[in-house]
Write a structure and sequence with these properties.
CATH architecture of the largest domain: Orthogonal Bundle
CATH class of the largest domain: Mainly Alpha
Strand order of the largest sheet: 2-1-4-3
Bound molecules: zinc ion
CATH topology of the largest domain: Helix Hairpins
Helix content: over 70%
Shape: rod-shaped
Number of helices: 5
């Protein structure tokens, strides 16, 4: 087989190995776990923020209700004092005053009920907040520990990947630039871009090569282009050469 083609094959081997290793790095279990933990920690942060804003809204409502209830109680006290100290002018006025007293008492009761409910809710939210914080702190400890391990791994792996990429660049030197360009063009759609002839089929897409292409092979062509997938098809298996 022509030297160019066997060099191109070597180039593909190096290139595929570098790509494979890069994929493996992305799929690194520590990395995936860190990404998962990071998402979890962000979620917890958002949950804490939501609880904080809920608690703030509740505190605001408690302040407003407390002020309203105090005002209503004051009115009620005033009214009761007036009723005790002065004789009502008429039965009708007395009845109206009593009605008003009752209304105030109802209103105060309702406000107290709401206050109680808010206090209960805010206790629950505060407890949730605490639980979220504890859970997040635990994951953060794990995350930090794993991060140290992963960062070291990553440094090592990156150095190795770099050496693989250097090998790719080194093998590329033995291949004509236009062949490399063609390889890269095919690689955008087909991986790997170079296939080996298998009987009279393209080893990449498994389609039979047309008779005219097979004829050129019998005439001595060392590589052909697969019309179906666009790969460069090597006639001889370079691994067996
Ligand atoms: Zn093909």
């Amino acid at each position: 087989m022509g030297n160019e083609l066997s060099m191109l094959w070597k180039y593909q081997l190096a290139d595929m190995e570098a790509d494979r290793f890069e994929r493996e790095m992305r799929g690194n279990p520590s990395r995936l776990k860190l990404l998962k933990d990071r998402d979890f920690l962000l979620e917890q942060q958002n949950a804490v923020r939501k609880i904080e804003s809920d608690l703030a809204a509740m505190a605001e409502r408690v302040a407003a209700l407390t002020a309203d209830a105090a005002k209503a109680e004051e009115s009620l006290r005033d009214l009761q004092e007036t009723l005790e100290e002065t004789e009502p002018e008429s039965l009708d006025i007395a009845r109206k005053s009593l009605d008003y007293c009752q209304k105030l008492m109802h209103a105060i009761g309702r406000m107290e009920q709401e206050l109680q409910k808010i206090r209960k809710d805010s206790d629950i939210r505060a407890k949730q907040q605490h639980e979220v914080r504890v859970r997040a702190a635990r994951v953060k400890v794990e995350f930090d520990k794993l991060k140290v391990v992963y960062d070291n791994e990553f440094k090592e792996h990156s150095a190795y990947l770099e050496s693989l990429r250097r090998q790719v660049a080194q093998t590329a030197k033995d291949v004509p630039a236009e062949l490399i360009d063609k390889y890269k063009l095919i690689k955008m759609h087909r991986i790997p871009p170079i296939a080996i002839l298998t009987e009279d089929r393209c080893g990449g897409c498994n389609m039979n090569l047309p008779a005219v292409v097979m004829r050129s092979i019998r005439m001595g062509a060392e590589s052909v282009e697969c019309e179906n997938c666009g790969r460069i098809v090597l006639v001889k298996n370079p691994n067996e050469a």
